[in-house]
Each structure stands twice: as structure tokens, then as C-alpha cells.
Amino acid sequence: MTSLLSVKGLSSGYRQQKVLHDINLEIAHGSVTAIIGPNGHGKSTLLKTISGLLPSWAGETTFDGQAMPNGAPDRARSGLILVPQGDQLFMAMTVEENLMMGAFARKDTSAIKSDLDEVYSLFPRLLERRTQRAESLSGGERRMVGIGRGMMADGKLMMIDEPSLGLAPLIIEQIYAALGVLATGNCSIVVVEENPSRVANVASSFHLMDGGTFAWTGNAADLTNSGEILNTYLGG
Amino acid sequence: MDAILQIVITGLTLGSMYALGSVGLALTYGTMGMFNMAHGVFMTIGAYASYTAATVWGLPLPVAIAFGILAGGIVGALMHLLVVRFMLSRDDFQTTIMVATAGVAILFQDLILKQFGAYPFKQPVQIEGMFRIGNTVIAYQSIAIMAMAAVLIGAMAWLLTKTRFGLAIRATAMNQNAAKLMGVKTELTYLQVILIAGTLAAAAGILISSLASLSPGMGTNPLIRAFVICVVAGLGSVTGAGLTAIALGVMEAGIGYYFGARYGFPVMLGLVILVLIFRPAGLFGKQGVIRA
User: Fold this and answer.
1) Phi/psi at A55 (nearest 5 deg)?
2) pLDDT digit string (tens) for B260-278?
3) Is residue B173 within 8 Å of residue B13, measured between CB atoms?
4) In chain B, which residue ranges form alpha helices assigned H by DSSP?
């Protein structure tokens, strides 16, 4: 079976500084993949490059059996969705306007409506806050809007960059409960986290990123057996 | 009482021209962080284009106006396609684009100087005559200016707030990367924004030249005024720019009446200094809160 996303020999970086070195990554249909690793080693850079926000320097990427178009807008329209780090909401828009921006490129009005209902049932909090501006929300609520906005795109692959970043433990549990629900859907998911413990129960395939390359790759069983390797990189 | 009515009419006429001249500048700054130094020359181009259409080609007045407005939009679009597009991804875009657009402005100003000469022309695109309310004299031209500004700004407001096209512009203005991730083609959005700004600036230029005259440097003063208005309103606030323009127009008319026209502009500049001291983000601007 062919992969949904196939990345071969990808390199990228900022200005003259190369950050990613020769990355290979296969994402299967309907899978949940976790990319873990210490801060500052290229996890977010990888997601930005795959989403098209950063240009790739070398390598081939195919998505859903086709060569990936250039540029973030066209990639988003082809169903490759990034929920970026720090949410990147439209601050002066309301919660609902933000969610509807997620469906900007879609034309199927009735399906958009039912997807909106789905977001509200997953995050009832957002229904209460739907007419409030994004700038007035708490960190956890912003994260919910960010993920909900990603859901509204009805994509084939959703890449979520550090969903637990900067949140209180209780809120992180809520967010991960929601991701668990999402994982049962049709959309494949890539989650980036610093620490594997959060994603251990959700993901089926794991990549440890260090110094801009994958230092270790394995499935859930490998993860439990490779405690020492992970401790070396992540400091237990 | 008569004096006040006269001041209000004159002020609204000035204000609606200023508004037309500054909302485009605010829109380009707000959407793409670009302070367009060529905005003034868009006004000049609009004025000269409708002058050429009316006087040289002998076209009827409405066609000449439409041609002038269109010319501003086309020059704006060309500037985007030939210059701005290649600079967008630079880190120091906000600074370099000012230098680049200033260069474009100088180029066009000199082209106009070469083609038409430095001699100031009378703008043929205007309506003669006036009427009275009590002792107040109102020129039809003033009414035409206010009507045209209201129609054009109203159309822009409708575009920005009620259409999908406007939604793309607002989203890009708020967060460019997020807009891209939603599938908004931001490069196209930028082109459209500059086109709209060029159109509005050209319209402002036609109106300004109908009250003063045509000269290659006619765009300089309105550009400084538009800049002042945008700073007082808060850079990037489009609604704020419109309202501030009207207020400053009325203020300038009042100062012109009571103290003399030569004090209008200096007082306006003084006001900028005060605003920058006490409300650095402008009257309608928000203090930027940076959050990760």
C-alpha cells in the first residue's frame, strides 16, 4: 500500500543555516505518527517545510500519490493541514470566524456546517465562546480553536505542532482526549511533542528527531523497549 | 452660524479627499506591512490620466474619470508585479520596500515631468457652478467630491467586510502565515490590495487636482498628509484612517478660516507629534501585545 505522505531526502533551513538533513518519512493512511525530540532540533522546521511555509532545499515529497504543489496555500488546498505552534489565530476575529477560516478553501456548505457542529461537540467550550474574539481567549481555548480550525479544513493529513505547549496539565489532558477522538477518524495525524509520554498512547509510529535527522524510529512496542535510548536524548 | 456651516462643508470636502487618499495607504500598510512611498505618485498618475483622456483625447467626463482611476490601479498592479513581488520574502522588507517604492515614485514623477512639462495645468474634469443654503455657498464640485469619495470608500468597505475576497485580505492582514495555511493565496491578495490602493489614490488625485491644479509634484503633499492621517489613526487601521481624515479636514478648514490657510498643515504636523508622544499606537491603533 502506498503511503499518504512520502518524504525522501528532505533538507531545509533558514537563510544559510541548514536545519534538516536528509529526512525520510512515510505516513500511512489513517495512522497517527509522533515526532518527538528535544527543543531546537528541527521538529517544527520539518512541519513548516512539509506544509510549504518554508521552502525545501532538496528532496522529494509526494502526497496522496501526487507530487506536492509548491507553496503553503496550494498544499493546504490539497488536504495537507498544519496546526501551527502557538496557534496563530486570527486575533481580531471571533471563535466562529476563526473556525470558518479553516474551511476557507471549501465550497461544500452543508458539509462545512456539519464539521462545525463536530468541532463544537468535541470542544463544547468553543460553542460557549463562539462570538468572542480570539484575543480574549485563554491559552487552552486558543489551542482548541487552533485544532478546531484545522479540523474544519477536512484534510487528509493533519500535522499538529506541540499541542501541549504552555498549557496546564489538566488542559493538556483535555486536548489529548480530543486528539484521541480525532485519531479514530479518517484523517491521518502527525503530532510533534517534546516528550513521548503524552503521545505514547495515541500514536502508533514514533520518530525521534535529533540534530535535524531522525535518530530513532519505531512503533509503540519499540518505544517501551527503547527506554534507554530515549532517556539518553530526552533526559528521562 | 454661517461661518460654521461653511467650515463644515469645506472641511468635509477636504476630509473626504484626504480619506480617499489615506485609506489605501492604511490598507497596504495593514495588510502587508508596506509603507508605499509611491502612493502619492498614484494620485498624480490618476490626475494626469484623466486630464489626458478629457483634454487630449476629448473623451466625455465620466469616461475620463474612470480612465484616470483605472490607470492608478494598473500602475499599482504593475509595481507589484515588477518590484514588490520580488521583495516580499526579504527579512527587512518593511525598510527596503520604502526605498524601492520611493524609487518608483521618482521614476514616475520624472516620466510625467518629461511628458507634460513642469507647467501646472487646469484639471478639466470638474463641475462648474454653485448653490446657496442661506448665506452659505456650496460648489457643486464639493458635492461631487464628497459623493465620489463616499461611493468609492463605501464600495471598499463593502468589499472588505462582506465578501470572501475581503475575508482573505483581513485574514492576511491579521496573520499572513496562518492565512496561507488556510489556503489563502496571499501573493494574489497583495496584488489585489495594491490594485485597490492604486485605484483609490488615483481617484483622490483627480479630485485634488480639480481643486488645485496638475503638476508633476502634486502627489507629494497629499502623500505626507495621508501618512500623517495614518499615523494619527494608528498605522494599518483602515476605518480609523477614514474617520481621522474627515476630522483633520474639518479641523484644517476651521484653522484656515480663523487663523489663515497657511497654519493648517503645520498644526496637523504638530498634532502628529502630540499623538506620538501620548498615544504612540495612534488613536485607533492597538498597543501591540506580543505573545508566543
Assistant:
1) -70, 145
2) 888 988 888 898 899 889 9
3) no
4) 2-32, 39-51, 61-79, 85-87, 93-116, 140-162, 164-174, 176-181, 186-211, 220-233, 238-258, 264-278
Residue A152 belongs to what H/E stretch? Answer: helix A139-152
- ipTM > 0.95, yes or no: no
CB contact under 8 A, B177 and A72: yes
Neighbours of A231 (CB within 10 A): 10
Residue numbers in A near B170 (CB within 8 A): 90, 92-93
d(CA A141, CA A129): 9
Q: Specify whether the CB–CB gap between A88 and B177 falls below 8 A.
A: yes
The answer to whether B168 contacts chain A (CB < 8 Å) is yes
Domain boundary assignment for chain B: 2-278
For residue A225, what is its C-alpha cell?
523497549
Give one DSSP letter per residue of B154-208, joined into a string. Answer: HHHHHHHHHSHHHHHHHHHHH-HHHHHHTT--HHHHHHHHHHHHHHHHHHHHHHH
CA distance A178 to A143: 11
Give the total number of structural domains in chain A: 1
Question: Of A11, A204, A211, whose CA–CA distance to A223 is shortest?
Answer: A204
A77 near B CB under 8 A: yes
Judge whether A84 lies within some domain. Answer: no
User: Chain A closest CA to B35's CA: distance in Å?
Assistant: 22
Q: Tell me which residue range forms the domain holding A28.
A: 1-79+193-236
Chain B positions in Cβ-Cβ contact with residue A73 (cut-off 8 Å): 180, 183-186
CATH number at residue A235: 3.40.50.300
- All three cell numbers of B205, joined, read 488625485
Instruction: Say what the pTM is.
Output: 0.88
- Cell output for B267: 498644526
Cβ neighbours for B117, distance < 8 A, ≥ 6 positions apart: none
- pLDDT tens digits along A82-97: 999 999 999 999 999 9
d(CA B113, CA B95): 27
Task: Kindly identify which residue of chain A lies nearest to residue B188, measuring between CA atoms.
Answer: A73
**Among the listed residues B220, B37, B214, B260, the one whose alpha carbon sits nearest the alpha carbon of residue B115:** B214
To the question of domain B2-278 being in CATH 1.10.3470, the answer is: yes
Of A185-189, B68-72, B252-256, B266-270, which has the strongest mean pLDDT?
B68-72
Q: Cα separation of B216 and B219, whole Å?
A: 8
